[in-house]
Design a protein that fits this description.
Layout (H helix, E strand, L loop, with lengths): L7 H9 L4 E2 L2 H10 L3 E6 L11 H12 L3 E6 L21 H18 L10 E4 L1 H4 L4 H7 L6 H6 L1 H8 L6 H4 L1 H16 L3 E5 L3 H15 L4 E5 L12 E2 L2 E2 L9 H9 L6 H8 L4 H8 L5 H18 L1 H15 L10 E4 L6 E2 H7 L6 H9 L3 E3 L2 E2 L6 E2 L8 E5 L3 E7 L2
Parallel strand pairs: 2-3, 2-5, 3-4, 5-6, 9-15
Antiparallel strand pairs: 1-6, 7-8, 10-13, 11-12, 11-14, 14-15
Helix pairs in contact: 10-11, 12-15, 12-16, 13-14, 13-15, 15-16, 17-18
């Protein structure tokens, strides 16, 4: 549809590629034009960090605040105890309360980099749905909230239907998840005046549930806005690399590895990613994205620097770019490479084990294949012997291991 937004926020969403769908374009746009709009995204605490796949939502909250509105980051301290069944083949492993609390602590560090939790009108709120979910009275909840949900309609949602069509079990516990998520929106509207829920387009059904419930119980008008589910131009899920998820916390993904992920973006994705993950002017994003040949590599470095600056700070971005130039252009070691420390008591150790421990391969089998296919190097020289043992003498100075042209690690002797 063609819609010309009045509000700065909707203009940003549409121009930069954040918008997949909205429950009421005009109504939401008018609400944004009238005053400060609180909007939320919920994040279940299934790991101690979020990864790049969540970055599009985090950037939406950042833009919400930058255009004069109030972000709410909702931690799923309650809903994580149930587990979101959406588009999963099996039930999530249940976490203990201590694990959930630890994960929430890690996730909070991510948000502080992107949005400001100050006391002003647009200061973000960090909330936890355990606040209202943990003490629900089961019978009251069934009577007051459960009666508004049609099981027939819930069974028609794609996230549930796909599981049942494959004849995979869906527990009653998981079936309750969408009711709890809808109840979150109701409570956020009742307690904090929250007017909109954001999420990926796979959350559309859950978001609409919350809007419908809030209208029925409170008779309030609220909205939902979804972002596209991103895949890279070669069809891969956004946020995944050869080594697994690209996490947003430095203790789970070193800034160097994070920077390299963006530097290795395929040519066709550069312009789109600049619009979504940086704050560069749109015209500049399009200009950089249209470059070809070796010129596009300069655009990829700008993308990597901009995204790394937002996540890890300008110093980390500059250091990783310098390390990258040292490693790639000059064949050096680079001070900022991911480093594996080996204790003297663990020596000698096989080169295959070192490749796995340094994160350049997921298994010994994969490491051996890498060597057999001439994809591994040691100190920039081809590594051909999968049986090579590394002893104390070999580690008198750091060893540089490489997998392909773009992935490197240092191995040093622990001090």
């Amino acid at each position: 549809m063609t819609y010309h937004p009045k509000s700065d926020f909707m203009a940003v969403m549409m121009q930069r590629g954040f918008l997949a769908d909205c429950t009421d374009y005009q109504g939401f746009d008018e609400a944004l034009s009238k005053g400060v709009v609180p909007g939320y995204i919920g994040f279940d605490a299934t790991a101690s960090s979020l990864h790049v796949g969540s970055l599009i939502q985090i950037m939406m909250l950042r833009w919400l605040q930058k255009t004069g509105h109030k972000p709410i980051t909702l931690m799923g301290g309650g809903t994580t105890k149930v587990g979101d069944p959406s588009f999963r083949a099996d039930e999530r492993p249940l976490l203990t309360e201590a694990q959930i609390d630890d994960n929430i602590s890690g996730i909070k560090k991510v948000f502080a980099k992107y949005i400001s939790y100050d006391d002003g009108d647009t200061g973000a709120l960090m909330l936890n749905n355990a606040e209202w979910l943990d003490n629900l009275n089961y019978l009251e909840f069934l009577r007051d909230i459960g009666r508004h949900f049609s099981v027939n309609r819930m069974l028609s949602f794609e996230s549930v239907k796909s599981r049942l069509d494959r004849e995979q079990s869906l527990s009653f516990l998981e079936f309750n998840y969408m009711i709890l998520q809808a109840y979150d929106f109701l409570e956020l509207n009742r307690r904090y005046g929250c007017l909109v829920q954001f999420g990926g387009s796979d959350q559309w059904g859950n978001i609409v549930n919350g809007i419908d419930l809030t209208r029925r119980v409170l008779d309030h008008e609220i909205y939902g806005l979804t972002s596209p589910l991103l895949t890279t131009s070669d069809g891969k899920k956004m946020g995944k690399s050869l080594n697994g998820a690209i996490w947003l916390n430095a203790d789970m993904c070193a800034p160097y590895e994070f920077w390299q992920f963006w530097r290795n973006t395929t040519d066709a994705d550069v312009g789109r990613f600049l619009k979504l993950y940086t704050e560069l002017d749109i015209d500049e994003c399009e200009r950089l994205g249209s470059l070809e040949g070796s010129d596009i590599n300069a655009a990829k470095i700008i993308l990597a620097n901009e995204v790394t600056t937002l996540c890890h700070g300008a110093e980390a971005a500059a250091a990783t770019e310098a390390t990258s130039r040292e490693v790639f252009e000059k064949g050096g070691v680079g001070a900022d490479l991911p480093t594996l420390e080996i204790a003297a008591t663990d020596l000698p150790v096989s080169i295959v084990q070192l490749i796995v421990k340094s994160g350049l391969a997921k298994s010994g089998k994969e490491a051996k294949r890498l060597i057999a296919e001439n994809g591994a190097k040691i100190d920039d020289a081809p590594l051909t012997d999968a049986g090579l043992m590394i002893d104390m003498a070999a580690l008198a100075s750091p060893i540089k291991l490489s997998a392909g042209k773009k992935r490197h690690a240092l191995v040093t002797l622990a001090g």
